[in-house]
Design goal:
The complex is a heterodimer.
Chain A: E1 3-8, H1 17-28, E2 33-38, E3 41-44, H2 48-53, E4 61-67, H3 71-85
Antiparallel strand pairs in A: 1-4, 2-3, 2-4
Chain B: E1 2-5, E2 7-10, E3 13-20, H1 36-65, H2 67-81, H3 83-96, H4 100-116, H5 121-124, H6 126-141, E4 155-159, H7 164-169, E5 175-180, H8 188-196, E6 200-202, E7 216-220, E8 225-228, H9 232-255, E9 269-274, H10 280-285, E10 291-295, H11 297-301, H12 309-323, E11 328-331, H13 359-364, H14 366-379, E12 385-389, H15 395-414, E13 424-429, H16 432-436, H17 438-441, E14 447-450, H18 452-460, H19 478-493, E15 497-500, H20 511-517, E16 521-524, H21 529-537
Parallel strand pairs in B: 3-4, 4-5, 5-6, 9-10, 9-16, 10-11, 11-12, 12-13, 13-14, 14-15, 15-16
Antiparallel strand pairs in B: 1-8, 2-6, 3-7, 7-8
The chains are: A alpha+beta, B alpha/beta.
Chain lengths: ~90, ~550
């Protein structure tokens, strides 16, 4: 069963290239599969074109789903990371 | 002399020789390859080289321009490693037996088109990132080393468009300024030019002529002008302008970190007005001593529904954390029929300046006010916050607002959420009623901040939006100045401080008057901070 949480972007510039790169690098550090969903669009958090292609803006709510062996630890850490960087 | 009007994206003046950078894009030839598997290997080798190059570029950028700018090249490296990108290129090579250059270019255009189609100018600019990394791979496939196009002497860089990696590879000690045919104000070139403090003019369009290479030119980044083959007269006037600009910059740099104090020892706190969390960068760069007015409206204006408590909390927290122990005064919601937000469902008003707005909304619909107050108090645990209430006209309004504030504090206490219960609460003095009642209001609050724009409008009965009234809407009017003095006197009699957060605070012709009145604080736009400090130190 996947762990999931929702996070709202407060960075006024939204998911632009630099934060997208950081998010992808962080996501790649986990074994679990991670997806990001905004509206009806779902992308792989380990692929930068997918993450940038979300076009997530300030105020958008992103649903993060984490599925895999390290999902519990990953969820808490990844959520804190997103809040810090976006 | 040829005069070209573009868009200035970085201020300053450059005078020098034009050096035109070859645009490396060109057309990519399509060839059929006999051995697609070998071609895939050729692509992988070039891609790996590109990743190594970008790593070096990252380190160079980190050393010269800071870690923040360098992170862009981390994103670029990730693009080259992205499975969607790689699979698309290798798929094209394998299924169509095309050369690697053609497959890279085709894939780049496909991904660039995806970004270009997005309804967001910032994301549209990402199309340039995809093309940039792809051009690098194509260049390596062609067997060219890192393009070293730096000529000997100092020069003005001119190009059709500059990719971020081209921009940072330039020898900065020799670059005087930038000129491009394309580009946007949000492009990396524009951002980097501003970081480097070099003038830049973009969007010259068809007036950009590669034949200008080697010609003398003047770049005026403030006016967005480029003068090719300038005449003696222009050269002379621009040399003077350049010197003035540089002297000014140097002077300002010298004033950073210096106290805002007159020769006689009178001190004024110099704060900044901001509208968004990202403005903090400019506040710190201009050495403001705090934030005197953080307009919280942007959170409401930019979202499609009421911003949640968490979203507001994060936005406030980000600002106060960046400001460290410097004070951040956050003004509560100041929305009305003139700043329309759909989800508020505000009715049309013939006279919105005198209508249902600001504190009037907050006191009528406390459920909206409470969400913001909870976010503000939660953020108070992370820095030095003060709250400021707008559009106050009576003591009762302040008491009503404070009652809601106490309710919010009690809620947070019950929920065991950390906050600072002692943060200061002040009011904007921007209505004639609040000036008249200032002695009574001063007993209720911790500080006053005079909003001179609205105070002028309400005192002189002149609509701010009406251009025909400019001769009557004079903020220098003795009526407005007397209002300011009455407010300061009332504040001081009650032992609280009083500042100005309207545009008038930056008006150097009034600085002496404000010092005489004894204003304790002036909050101005970030770029006005240092000129104002200079003026105060000269008194």
């Amino acid at each position: 069963m996947a762990t999931s949480f929702t996070f709202t972007i407060t960075d006024p510039e939204g998911m632009h290239a630099r934060p997208a790169g950081k998010v992808v690098e962080k996501a790649q550090s986990y074994q679990s599969a991670i997806t990001l969903t905004v509206g009806d669009k779902t992308v792989d958090a380990k692929r930068i074109f997918g993450v940038m292609g979300l076009g997530a803006k300030c105020g958008d709510a992103i649903t993060v789903a984490i599925d895999g062996e390290d999902e519990t630890a990953a969820a808490a850490e990844f959520e804190a990371f997103l809040k810090e960087n976006l | 002399m040829r005069k070209i009007q573009g868009t200035g994206v970085s201020a300053g003046v450059a005078i020098g020789t034009i050096h035109v950078l070859e645009s490396g894009d060109g057309s990519v030839e399509r060839r059929v390859v006999a051995d697609p598997a070998a071609e895939v290997q050729r692509f992988r080798a070039a891609r790996d080289t590109a990743i190594v190059e970008l790593g070096k570029l990252r380190d160079k950028t980190a050393a010269e321009l800071g870690e923040g700018k360098a992170e862009l090249f981390d994103a670029h490296r990730l693009m080259l490693k992205d499975p969607d990108y790689v699979e698309s290129i290798e798929g094209m090579i394998t299924t169509s037996s095309v050369n690697a250059e053609f497959a890279v270019n085709g894939t780049a255009e496909q991904f660039a088109a995806m970004f270009a189609a997005m309804d967001d100018s910032y994301m549209q600019a990402r199309a340039a990132d995809v093309r940039d990394v792809s051009k690098r791979v194509i260049r390596i496939l062609g067997g060219h080393d890192t393009a070293d196009q730096n000529p000997d002497g100092p020069h003005i860089i001119a190009a059709d468009d500059l990719t971020p990696s081209e921009t940072v590879q330039l020898d900065r000690s020799k670059v005087l300024g930038f000129v491009t045919a394309k580009g946007s104000a949000n492009s990396h070139t524009a951002i980097l030019a501003r970081t480097m403090g070099l003038p830049a003019v973009i969007g010259l369009g068809n007036d950009f002529d590669p034949e200008d290479d080697g010609k003398m030119a003047i770049v005026d980044g403030s006016a967005g002008l480029v003068l090719v083959d300038p005449d003696q007269e222009s050269l002379k006037s621009y040399q003077a302008k350049k010197k003035g600009y540089e002297d000014h910059l140097r002077l300002l740099q010298e004033l950073k970190g210096k106290p805002t104090q007159t020769k006689e020892g009178q001190t004024v706190r110099l704060y900044s007005n901001i509208g968004r969390p990202s403005d903090v960068t400019s506040v710190l760069a201009n050495d403001a001593e705090g934030i005197g007015l953080y307009r919280s409206e942007f959170l409401y204006l930019e979202s499609e529904d009421f911003p949640t408590e968490d979203a507001q909390f994060e936005a406030y927290k980000k600002v106060v954390q960046k400001m460290g122990d410097r004070l951040v005064i956050i003004r509560t919601l100041d929305i009305g029929a003139d700043k329309q937000v759909g989800y508020f469902n505000l009715k049309h008003e013939d006279n919105p300046a005198l209508g249902y707005r600001a504190i009037r909304i907050c006191l009528t619909q406390p459920e909206i006010f409470k969400v913001q107050l909870r976010a503000l108090y939660r953020a108070s645990a992370y820095g030095n916050i003060a709250i400021m209430l707008p559009m106050i006209t009576s003591v009762q309004e302040v008491r009503d607002a404070k009652k809601i504030i106490e309710e919010v504090k009690a809620e947070l206490r019950d929920e065991n959420i950390p906050f600072n219960a002692d943060i200061n609460v002040g009011i904007m003095v921007e209505t004639p009623a609040s000036v008249v009642m200032a002695p009574e209001l001063a007993k209720e609050v911790d500080f006053f901040s005079i909003g001179t724009n609205d105070l002028t409008q309400y005192t002189l009965a002149c609509d701010r939006q009406n251009p025909n009234l400019s001769r009557f809407a004079d903020p220098h009017s003795p009526a407005v100045l007397r209002m300011i003095k009455m407010t300061v006197d009332a504040a001081h009699a009650a032992g609280i401080w009083c500042g100005i957060c309207g545009e008038l605070g930056a008006d150097l012709s009034l600085t002496e008057t404000f010092l005489e009145y004894g204003l304790d604080e002036l909050s101005v736009s970030p770029t006005s901070v240092l000129p104002l400090r200079e003026a105060i130190r000269e008194r």
